[in-house]
Each structure stands twice: as C-alpha cells, then as structure tokens.
C-alpha cells in the first residue's frame, strides 16, 4: 500500500523513477506539473531536457497544418481550427444577433457551429502506456505504469497513468493489475482496484479481468482498453474491449518472454 506518482511533468524523461522517488522519499502520493519537474531534478534525475524527437515534432507539425484535427475538444467553437476556443453557449447567444453584427464582431467566421470536433479514436497508435507487475522471491508484489499521455492531448491533461487503482494496483495479499487504453474513460471506473478486490473475494484472474472490462463496456460501448490480472500465486489473465490485446510474461524458470494474445 505504498504509492508514488507524478503527472503533467515536463522536461524530465524518467517519469517512473520520479514516481518511485515520491513514494520512497515523501509522505505524498502525487506531485504534478512544474513542481514535479523541480522535485525530480532536485532528487538527482537528469533534466531539464528537451523530450521532443524528430518523429514527434514531425507528427505535431502535420497536425497543426491540419488545423489541429482531430482533437479532444467538444461543445466549443470553432470546431475545425487550432483555436482560441469559446464555449458553445456563447455561440448560441451570438447566433441570435444579425448576420451583420456577426460579420462585424467575428469576421473570421461565416457561421458559428457548436459541436464536437473531430475526435481522436483511442487505439494503440495514440498512446504508449506501459504497465508492469512483478512478484519477488519473498512474495512481495509491485506494479508500475509509465506513459507519455494521449497523442494531441489538451495541455495539462492527466490520464489514468498516475491514478492509483486505475492504470495499476497491487496488494501483496491478493495480486496485481495493470491497464492500458482510453484512460479518460478507465479512470472513472478504477478497473485495477476492481480487479484486485474481485480476486480478494475469490474470483479467478480471468473472470476478474473480464468483469472489470465489462463494467466499462456496458456504459461506454465504443470504449477501447485492456487489463491484465495477476494473483499472488502467479496465475495471470487478460481482458480487452475494442481491440486485440497482447501482454508478456516471464518467470524465473523461463528462458524467454512468452506473449499472450487476448481477443476482445
């Protein structure tokens, strides 16, 4: 029941190491933003660093040229640009004015429309979550998650990666869980906490994982995500919705990692 996390941390590459430092050297659970960067650097991690790569810069430039489409905004105007954005309620009020007034006050708009922008489909191409669970020789269980966040996310967005019980959860008495997918949906359900608690009540990992995923899918049929479940005896399983999921396993008796494929 020890937890450490950082979120919205810039200029420091080793987010998972920073999270571990929070756990081991503070009484806090979560440190965010600029202060997380300062904390990490003060504790000896390398930085400040430019974390952009040629590939990420090229992707961002293409996205800007495409008027920042798709993106994660909804119920704002304008829908097909890089902003600045305004509340759709304002559009409703402005629509009552004469076209002449609209043209005078907002010459860049021929029409004001309040709707959802072109939404980014959450899939394996739009996020990069890594979640890993480990059981040591003494039976102690640890789990960690590292992510760069959703591609083209709104600045300041925090996903499920640093939220205990959502992207990861562990209890030595029971087992562990890791998750990946649409974090903005998953964090509303704390699926990994659900998995561990289901296993605590006697549910096998396969059923616990499927149950947690089905709870999300019932509310959000278009949800895309996956989880793995691991009990304290080393029994493991996965469940997913909206994609085919793979996770890997290695024990001390194995010479190579074994990859398991889970159908939605």
Can you describe what's shown?
By secondary structure, the chain is α+β, with helices and mostly antiparallel strands. Helix content is 29%, strand content 21%. It contains eight helices and twelve strands. The chain has helices at 15-25, 33-42, 54-65, 88-94, 99-105, 183-186, 191-200, 205-219, and strands at 5-7, 30-32, 76-77, 86-87, 130-135, 141-146, 168-171, 175-181, 225-231, 236-241, 245-249, 258-262. A four-stranded antiparallel β-sheet has the order 7-8-9-10, covered by helices on one side. The protein has a two-stranded parallel sheet with strand order 1-2. Strands 3-4 form a two-stranded antiparallel sheet. Strand 1 (5-7), helix 1 and strand 2 form a beta-alpha-beta unit. It is globular, with a radius of gyration of 22 Å. 34% of the residues are buried.
Shape: globular
Give the biggest beta sheet: 4 strands, antiparallel
Query: Gyration radius, to the nearest Å?
Result: 22 Å
Please list the strands of the largest sheet in the order they lie side by side: 7-8-9-10
The count of DSSP E runs of length 2 or more, i.e. the number of strands, is 12
Oligomer: single chain
Order of helices and strands: EHEHHEEHHEEEEHHHEEEE
Distance separating the two termini: 31 Å
Instruction: Tell me roughly what share of residues is in helical segments.
Output: 25-40%
Number of alpha- plus pi-helical segments: 8
Mean pLDDT: 88
């Amino acid at each position: 029941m020890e937890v450490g996390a950082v979120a919205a941390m810039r200029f420091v590459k080793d987010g998972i190491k920073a999270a571990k430092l929070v756990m081991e050297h503070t009484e806090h659970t979560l440190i965010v933003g600029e202060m997380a960067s300062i904390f990490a650097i003060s504790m000896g991690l390398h930085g400040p660093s430019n974390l952009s790569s040629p590939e990420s810069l090229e992707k961002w430039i293409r996205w800007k040229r495409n008027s920042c489409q798709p993106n994660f905004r909804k119920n704002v105007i304008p829908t097909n640009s890089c902003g600045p954005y305004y509340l759709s309620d304002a559009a409703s009020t402005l629509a009552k004015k004469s076209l002449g007034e609209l043209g005078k006050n907002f010459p860049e708009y021929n029409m004001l429309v309040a709707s959802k922008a072109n939404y980014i489909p959450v899939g394996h191409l739009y996020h990069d979550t890594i979640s890993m669970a480990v059981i040591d020789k003494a039976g102690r269980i640890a789990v960690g998650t590292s992510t760069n966040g959703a591609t083209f996310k709104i600045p300041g967005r925090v996903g499920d990666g640093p939220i205990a019980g959502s992207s990861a959860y562990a209890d030595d008495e029971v087992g562990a869980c890791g998750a990946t997918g649409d974090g903005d949906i998953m964090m509303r359900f704390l699926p990994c906490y659900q998995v561990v608690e289901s296993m605590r009540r006697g549910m096998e990992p396969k059923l616990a994982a499927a149950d947690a995923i089905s709870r999300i899918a019932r509310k959000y049929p278009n949800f895309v995500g996956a989880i793995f479940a691991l009990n304290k005896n080393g029994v493991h399983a996965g469940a997913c919705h909206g994609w085919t999921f793979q996770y890997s396993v290695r024990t001390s008796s194995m010479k190579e990692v074994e990859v398991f494929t889970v159908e939605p």
